[in-house]
Design a protein that fits this description.
about 425 residues, BirA Bifunctional Protein, domain 2, Rossmann fold, 2 domains, five-stranded mixed beta sheet, 16 helices, about 40% helix, disordered C terminus, binds adenosine monophosphate
């Protein structure tokens, strides 16, 4: 390898991270816009928390025995000797923010959404990155299982707007602190009997937190897990009634679902409802979004006893299956000839931009033919011609590239023409 090539390799994007290039950004923005619009229809408001937090926050929130905390966190010590972690998920940050700002005392409903990057030191593969992006929503203070169904309905509605088809909704209950210990004990016993089928990691999990065996991707562990008792047989009266109410409301919303008793979703904090929406168009990494209820987290953090529920949607995964109609940009290319025309042209570009027309200007000496060639390549919708004649008359030529139609007019006349054709142009103030 030449020195140059090796320097380029050293400076390449880090494994598991990706650039989102301008040609992809339009779909990202469409997803972000539709997510915002949808969530706000349900009364959610955006809450932006920092990208890094204290390591203890995730240890306490996400859970000390979860794969995320034991294997996947980007943790570093800062110059002040403090252990910090790039957030691997968003829920603990929101809970912290609520406690810190006493948002529970405000009148607004505690419904929040957020979009941004998350970081996990996971094995990179298709659909699995080390920096990936999530759309996240959380609701606090709503105990009723109707809200569990409502957030699933909201997720479903967003996926439909994004043109995502071929999805399946999986639901489960992981019980609560009352009923889960008996289930964990039953799992521990069942895992003990299948010890030789379990990987070393799961043999350890059988002792520490047997529920986490369900997260394991090793085939022999999954086969063993299929023979384990199901949680529905262990739910206490309250958890069972909550689960049944969730199903009633899902039926009411006419959302098809499948009860998946092994859906425990990798995080220690879930209580009662867990759910996932998976896509039949993706390979092994088929979960588009997942979430659940976490009624104890706020009080475990030393805050008020306020229950919570939420979900996180993987943006890369959704975009891989979304069918989005991205509007084509409509821009005006400025074709000027000579130094004087350049000056007037720039004034004109300023005028059109101030009035909401996207204007492409390149500072290269070009003849008229070269200008048109370039405008064509850039797929400009119109070309504005500024030469000596045009300047003298203060009337300029405008060519519509798709039709070849040419018109002449003052800048005000041309703007009036364009205003009809460019979506979103506001009247000048
Ligand atoms: P989780 O926070 O693990 O419940 O994940 C919620 C959603 O985020 C998943 O359903 C995926 O769509 C997405 N996701 C999680 N981890 C990754 C990753 N490493 N790379 C890409 N997307 C991910």
């Amino acid at each position: 390898m030449t020195e140059d090539a090796s320097a380029k390799k050293d400076l390449a994007a880090v494994k598991g991270t990706k650039d989102i290039l301008p040609k992809e950004v339009e779909s990202w923005r469409a997803l972000e816009r539709l997510a915002r619009e949808t969530f706000e229809l349900y009364g959610y408001r955006e809450l932006r928390a920092p990208v890094f937090e204290t390591t203890e926050l995730f240890e306490k929130g996400t859970g000390a025995t979860s794969d995320i905390v034991t294997k996947e966190m980007y943790t570093f010590t800062d110059k002040g000797g403090r252990s910090l972690t790039l957030r691997p998920e968003y829920t603990p940050s929101v809970v912290r923010a609520i406690i810190e700002h006493r948002l529970d005392l405000e009148v607004e409903p505690m419904r929040y959404y957020y979009m941004g990057p998350m970081f996990r030191y996971d094995k990179p593969q298709k659909g699995r990155y080390r920096q990936f992006h999530q759309v996240d929503i959380e609701v606090f203070g709503e105990k009723d299982a109707a809200v569990d169904a409502e957030i699933i309905e909201m997720a479903d509605s967003l996926l439909r707007k994004l043109g995502v088809s071929g999805t399946e909704t999986l639901v489960n209950s992981v019980g609560c602190r009352e009923c889960r210990p008996a289930y964990s004990q039953a799992l521990r016993e069942a895992a003990g009997k299948r010890k030789s089928d379990l990987c070393p990691d799961c043999q350890r999990k059988a002792e520490t937190n047997p529920l986490r065996i369900f997260d394991c991707k090793v085939e022999s562990c999954q086969a063993a897990a299929r023979s384990f008792p199901v949680i529905q047989d262990f739910l206490c009266g309250e958890c069972l009634s909550h689960f049944n109410t969730l199903l009633v409301f899902l039926n009411q919303y006419r959302i098809p679902y499948r009860v998946e008793p092994r859906l425990v979703r990798g995080l220690d904090y879930y209580t009662k409802t867990t759910f996932e929406i998976v896509s039949s168009h993706l390979g092994a990494q088929n979960a588009l979004l997942g979430g659940g209820r976490y009624d104890d987290m706020m009080k475990d953090f030393g805050g008020p006893d306020v229950c919570g529920i939420g979900f996180a949607m993987g943006m890369e995964r959704v975009l891989a299956v979304a069918e989005l109609a991205v509007p084509k940009r409509k821009s005006l290319y400025l074709a000027y000839l000579g130094d004087e025309a350049k000056k007037s042209g720039l004034e004109l570009a300023r005028y059109f931009r101030a009035n909401g027309v996207e204007c492409l200007v390149e500072f290269k000496d070009r003849g008229m033919k070269a200008h048109f060639g370039r405008a064509n390549k850039l797929q400009a919708a119109w070309v504005l011609v500024v030469g000596e004649d045009e300047m003298k008359k203060s009337r300029f030529g405008l060519k519509e590239m798709a039709t070849g139609r040419q018109v002449e007019g003052t800048r005000e006349e041309l703007l009036a023409l364009l205003r009809d054709k460019v979506r979103g142009i506001e009247a000048p103030c």
